[in-house]
Amino acid sequence: MGLFKRNGAGNDAQGERKIAETELEANDASRGGVYLFFLAVFAVGFLVPFLLTIGLASPLTVAASIVVGFVAATSVRIAPHWERVAILRLGKFNRIAGPGLYCCIPFVEYAAIHVDQRITTASFSAEAALTADLVPVDVDAILFWMVWDAEKACLEVENYPKAVLRSAQTAMRDVIGQLNLADISTRRKQIDRDLEEMLGKKCEQWGVTVISVEIRDIMIPRELQDALSKEAQAERERNARIILAEVEKDISEMFVEAAEVYDRNPRAMKLRAMNLAYEGAKDSKGVLLAPSSLADGFNVGKLDLGE
């Protein structure tokens, strides 16, 4: 039951739904160096023709210098170590460039897409997914994936990050729909493995590898949560009553065996009565209140000790 989470009305439920929305985690890596290199190349491309024609000092010279600087900056570029760049030539795929320095032919080649080949973390959810016993649940999970073939990621699918997340949502609904609500919490690891296998087969054709899928929360309606809580309490009470009955049975069997022993030898019963009297007197600080029949145990004349 620890895996389930309430999904009641109110601000808490609204906040949970906002958190559970499908989203890609923010990329904290800096691309400042790429932009600085672009500005540096632009500055060099602008200053060289401007200084050579500084004597003319006309607006046409400044405009020409800006064009030269822009062409130079877009022709000579760099890519971070974790990035690959798909280059198209006249609209057709030509090559994968990077990491490091790469060049493009002006007005002929251009960078179509920048592919990050690091492991990417994305959170996704499947809202109101129906289980096999027709119970709607909201599932929140985390997906770890990476691009191993930048060419396929560029050519085989329009938007590969969105395609991976949408496939993850569909696969989640398929897996949840094959299980009853009671099986979800006990088969959590199995659900993760099934999702990883299903997504791996689908995303491989896009040049994407699914590393792992981890379920964070499974949220069920508040009314059903209360019903499950009552069911669990009733089950525990039933188990407690069964255990108590078994203990009572064991004790009664012991009493039967003790009665048989006392019946075979009356002296054992008298010794037991003397022991009970001693224990009672000790607990009550020397004062003993007991039936008169208990005194028979102290009748030494009738107690044959075998002398």
Automatic annotation (TrEMBL):
User: For this UniProt entry, which segments traverse the membrane?
Assistant: 34-54, 60-79
Q: Which Gene3D superfamilies match?
A: 6.10.250.2090, Band 7 domain
Look up the record and report any one GO term of the cellular component aspect: plasma membrane
SMART domains the UniProt entry points to: PHB (SM00244)
**Looking at the keywords, is Repeat present?**
no
Q: Which UniProt keywords apply?
A: Membrane, Transmembrane, Transmembrane helix
> Could you tell me which residue ranges the Band domain spans?
74-232
- Name the family: Belongs to the band 7/mec-2 family.
By its UniProt entry, which PANTHER family does this protein fall under? AT06885P-RELATED, BAND 7 PROTEIN-RELATED
State the protein's name: Slipin family protein
Query: From which source organism is this entry?
Result: Gordonibacter massiliensis (ex Traore et al. 2017)
